[in-house]
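Practice problem 4.
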């Protein structure tokens, strides 16, 4: 996630992040809870994107690159 995206979600009273993956799986994430794992310690930099956080979505959890803690979640199937 880019810095600007995180800032927008931080400013919202209620922020839900939806991530859709193949197989019609959608993860609805309470961003305020996920945000606890997104700290400056885990910012990565690439010339193309700039500073950002990289996250990985697994079957039952999401992890922020470099952070050993996990945000546990389950997908919903949509058609």
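Answer key:
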């Amino acid at each position: 996630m880019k810095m600007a995206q995180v800032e927008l979600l931080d400013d919202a009273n209620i922020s839900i992040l939806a991530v859709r993956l193949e197989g019609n799986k959608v993860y609805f994430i309470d961003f305020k809870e996920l945000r606890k794992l997104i700290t400056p310690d885990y910012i990565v930099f690439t010339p193309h994107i700039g500073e950002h956080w990289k996250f990985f979505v697994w079957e039952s959890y999401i992890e922020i690159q470099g952070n050993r803690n996990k945000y546990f979640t389950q997908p919903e199937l949509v058609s």
